[in-house]
């Protein structure tokens, strides 16, 4: 269970998250939707402590932190271990090969020796269809391939929750499809995914749950069926933008 | 013409001896120490501790903002007045280390800052410690970016060491000057000194391009 309680975060005095509370059960795919600037990234990044809110608390599977006081390194590491982020810009390490990108994190985390980590990395890269390019450097890969490696890298640190921040927004449609396919596979395995996306099709087909952010708060939290049938005016307006495209 | 050549042949051993005894070791020692100083100054500059940032900025400001010649004079001729007397060698090493270190610190800082923020966020989400991030993410990339400008700093340093004659060290230039004065052949001797510097420069720029090629192997454009 990933739990946010009364989490508030502002940037330069402008509130972005206003006392947001949310509980995400393990084994579910949660899709976070909302207009641009509604705080989706901030919410997701808070779960991995890439952003630290001013108040509230966060707990993931028994590890918890309360915001407001300074967090110790140990607290941060304990919470961070529970999740891993996949970024819109992939953020692979360009000086490491595909294999090293995926094998190094568990080694540096002290979770595996090099041989074990390499074997496991090869396996994970197979899962995302990238085990044929193990010795390649990221710059020589397409965006879709880089993002699949980034997903394997996130899996390599064995997080309880996988966090995706617009993982396909930088990709052409055919490359987007290959990344979405990997994510669908993960969802089918009942991994715990939290996905910020503008891919409404993914939300409709794959989400167990939709969280809609608006005005720094949660405007909707429920099933995709409920969400897409909602007659809430903000949700309709948000969805109309996509229908128009 | 034969005069010219025999003069070159006669003076070459002395010039090479001065090169091997002063120019090269001074350059190498000062450059290695300058890299250490630059890493420290960069770490201080990018630390979150204000006084350390200020100290680093002050150091770079001071040594980039004054001529190396003035720095040599202050250290060798000025400091004794304050009770600190250093040998010519020590003075030269200190001056060239601190001078080159200031330039190298600027190079390193710019290189570190040019690493995309996303890389650091990736390191954080993967739970790398601060040291692991420096060791495995920042340093390898920053060094590659810094390599060409650091090579230029080294080349500037080698040429700059020709100033040590003002503090009595007999480097290749000073020895050339002495021979020119006794043989009354300034053109021949100074041209010969220039050739020695060119030889060093050629070796260094060859090494520089080799090193760059190796360190750039992951960049797409270099493989295409
Ligand atoms: N580091 C920051 N400094 C200042 N303001 C920020 C920062 N990060 C986000 N913001 C602001 O907070 C608000 C919410 O940002 P956030 O990135 O969470 O929105 P989002 O829902 O992810 O938007 P998008 O769909 O465009 O990605 C925006 O107004 C943004 O400008
Ligand atoms: Mg965002």
Automatic annotation (TrEMBL), chain A:
Keyword hit for Membrane: yes
Mode of membrane association: Peripheral membrane protein
SUPFAM superfamilies xrefs: P-loop containing nucleoside triphosphate hydrolases
InterPro entries: AAA+_ATPase, ABC_ATPase_HisP-typ, ABC_transporter-like_ATP-bd, ABC_transporter-like_CS, MetN_ABC_transporter-like, P-loop_NTPase
Major localization listed first in the record, in broad terms: membrane
Top-rank taxon, per record: Bacteria
GO molecular function: ABC-type amino acid transporter activity; ATP binding; ATP hydrolysis activity
Keyword Membrane: yes
GO annotation, cellular component aspect: plasma membrane
Compartments, as annotated in UniProt: Cell membrane
Alphabetized PROSITE patterns for the sequence: ABC_TRANSPORTER_1 (PS00211), ABC_TRANSPORTER_2 (PS50893)
Family the UniProt entry places it in: Belongs to the ABC transporter superfamily.
Protein name, UniProt field: Amino acid ABC transporter ATP-binding protein
Organism: Kocuria tytonicola
């Amino acid at each position: 269970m990933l739990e946010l309680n009364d989490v508030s975060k502002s940037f330069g005095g402008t509130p972005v998250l206003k006392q947001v509370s949310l509980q995400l059960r393990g084994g579910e795919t949660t899709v976070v939707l909302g207009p641009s600037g509604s705080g989706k990234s901030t919410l997701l990044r808070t779960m991995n402590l890439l952003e630290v809110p001013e108040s509230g608390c966060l707990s993931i599977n028994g590890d918890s932190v309360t915001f407001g006081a300074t967090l110790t390194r140990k607290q941060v590491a304990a919470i961070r271990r529970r999740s891993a982020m996949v970024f819109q810009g992939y953020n692979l390490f360009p000086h490491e090969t595909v294999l090293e990108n995926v094998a190094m994190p568990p080694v540096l985390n002290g979770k595996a020796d090099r041989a074990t980590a390499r074997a496991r990395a090869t396996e994970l890269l197979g899962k995302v269809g990238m085990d044929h390019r193990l010795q390649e450097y990221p710059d020589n890969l397409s965006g879709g391939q880089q993002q699949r490696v980034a997903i394997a890298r996130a899996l390599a640190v064995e997080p309880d929750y996988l966090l995706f921040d617009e993982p396909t927004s930088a990709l052409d449609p055919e490359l987007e499809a290959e990344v979405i396919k990997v994510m669908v596979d993960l969802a089918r395995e009942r991994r715990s995914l939290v996905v910020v996306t503008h891919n409404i099709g993914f939300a409709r087909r794959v989400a167990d749950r939709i969280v809609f952010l608006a005005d720094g708060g949660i405007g909707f939290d429920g099933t995709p069926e409920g969400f897409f049938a909602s007659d809430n005016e903000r949700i309709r307006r948000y969805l109309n933008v996509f229908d128009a495209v | 013409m034969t005069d010219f050549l025999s003069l070159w042949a006669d003076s070459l051993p002395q010039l090479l001896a001065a090169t091997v005894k002063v120019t090269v070791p001074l350059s190498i020692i000062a450059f290695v120490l300058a890299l250490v100083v630059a890493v420290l100054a960069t770490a201080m500059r990018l630390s979150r501790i204000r006084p350390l940032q200020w100290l680093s900025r002050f150091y770079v400001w001071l040594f980039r903002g004054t001529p190396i010649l003035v720095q040599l004079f202050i250290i060798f001729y000025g400091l004794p007045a304050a009770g600190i007397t250093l040998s010519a060698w020590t003075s030269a090493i200190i001056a060239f280390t601190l001078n080159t270190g200031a330039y190298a610190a600027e190079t390193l800082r710019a290189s570190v800052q040019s690493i995309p923020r996303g890389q650091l966020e990736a390191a954080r989400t993967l739970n790398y410690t601060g040291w692991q991030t420096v060791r495995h993410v920042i340093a390898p990339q920053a060094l590659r970016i810094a390599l060409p400008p650091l090579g230029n700093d080294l080349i500037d340093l080698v040429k700059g060491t020709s100033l040590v004659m003002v503090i009595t060290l007999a480097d290749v230039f000073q020895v050339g000057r002495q021979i020119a004065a006794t043989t009354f052949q300034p053109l021949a001797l100074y041209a010969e000194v220039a050739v020695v510097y060119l030889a060093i420069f050629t070796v260094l720029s060859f090494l520089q391009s080799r090193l760059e090629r190796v360190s750039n192997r992951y960049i797409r454009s270099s493989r295409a």
